[in-house]
User: Fold this.
Amino acid sequence: MEYDLVIRGGLVCDGTGTPAFHADVAVKDGRIAKVGEVTGRGAEEIEATGRIVTPGFVDIHTHYDGQVTWENRVAPSSAHGVTTVLMGNCGVGFAPCRPHEREMLVKLMEGVEDIPEVVMTEGLPWNWETFPEYLDALDKRELDIDIATQLPHSALRIFVMGERAARQEAPTAEDLDKMRALVAEAIKAGAFGVTTSRNVMHRTKAGDLAPSLYSDVDELCALADGLNQADAGVFQMIPAPSGHSEEEFAVLRQIAEHGRRPVSFTLLDVAGQPGKGWRGMLEALEQARADGLEMRGQVAPRPVGMFYGLDLSLNPFSSHPSYKAIAHLPLAERVAKMRDPEFRAQLLSEQPQDTNPTTLALIDAFRATHEWDGPRPDYEPVRDNRIEQRAERAGQSWPEYAYDLLLRNEGRQMFYLPAANYTAGNLDAVREMLGHPDTLLGLADGGAHYGLICDGSFPTYFLQRWARDACDDQRITIEDAVAELTSRPAAAVRMTDRGRIAVGMKADLNVIDLDALDLHLPFVAYNLPAGGKRMQQDADGYVATVVSGVVIQRNGQPTGALPGRLVRRGRELMAA
Assistant:
């Protein structure tokens, strides 16, 4: 056979944003060999008539740092057309790390990214200490899709400063020199950047702030110096969500001016944010671009939502003493106990008790959740159907009302909180952010928040909601939508060999039935190490997903093929 794979007759959206065209796509030795009319045969052929053919999606905001060391599927992202993920975001990860400091990183990841400690304790092999050694360990992994990573600031701070990193101590000049050198070392070894967080919600489960929260701007600029020394890499940060938007952007701009490297940051529509909020950030981004700085906001295509339920990480009674006493029981036993009238009365008489203020805030936020009881997910719920308002109409307090709802479906009922990007009760702000030239699609957080957030489905939702189903004045063209998922994120982090359908590019591809594209309801699966749980979400419409010329998924089902590998910065062309 002349080719390894030929995809025939599809509508090719090549990732550049230019008009789609009908063509065949031929693959040889993991690369795209021809785009157009292909007369030669392939050892494998996919009929794509009536479907769109896209580059594989590139997700630049994930947390698979641990998961890829213990399993081979990068799920849920690989189930939603993603063929490359960038890990190590928000300043948290597992390298560099000395053996006696492992527990600190595990507890931090447990609190910040909702990964149970027992899952990491059993799953992580810890066959590394330095960041280059971590990359070497990842190099040995065989996965369904490609992975790339960044250096997390909190792990770096602990590695350099030890216990001082988790206390309110400033680094010494020697500490800063070590951080600069280690950032440069990581970039030269193949990391794509360095990441940090200023989000006060980022805490251990006990409530201690992430080490990066104790850093001042000089320390952040030292990290940027490390990028500058390596003459490569991007800087990613999550700002304080409740901070003054103008002041937070001033910090970001100072980093960009100091390091002269690309900077990206989390950009959300957050209720009650002082200053101009997200619109002020967009204005500041435009000015930065005019001044020659490369800065972008990472935006989400829907509300950034959290889920609650008895079978998930949080419910409105998670921190009540009586519930804590039964939390270890299997779900069925907990439900039976909660149906006891005496237990109900006792629990409702209590107040939540927790050392972590973030946990208490999230529990109180349950009052603004929406019950999901339909056949399909509803990411744009009607504001009047929040639990608190339903309880008022029923003549009950919201905890009383919620208690009974939690027991529905044998305790598996889910409740959705559109926590950000929904302050006006619609997605108008989201659409405005998505359409801005200085934003990137991101924030899916795959590999984290196993029992709280299920946003690895962002790519599917984005295509379905904004490219197919939106009204005319809000619709994003399919060509632009595909570019937002492929070439634009790849270019932003300097991945040079993927994100476009063109001869010589890496053969990462999707064949999608756009009309059939649809999201299922999330569900809970107990398939992590130590029997840990995670939320998963399936989708219809993915005819095939291809990585390095190998089909990894057909009609929503994995084939078992594992062509995915670590991608090292500067060596992308060798990654196939």
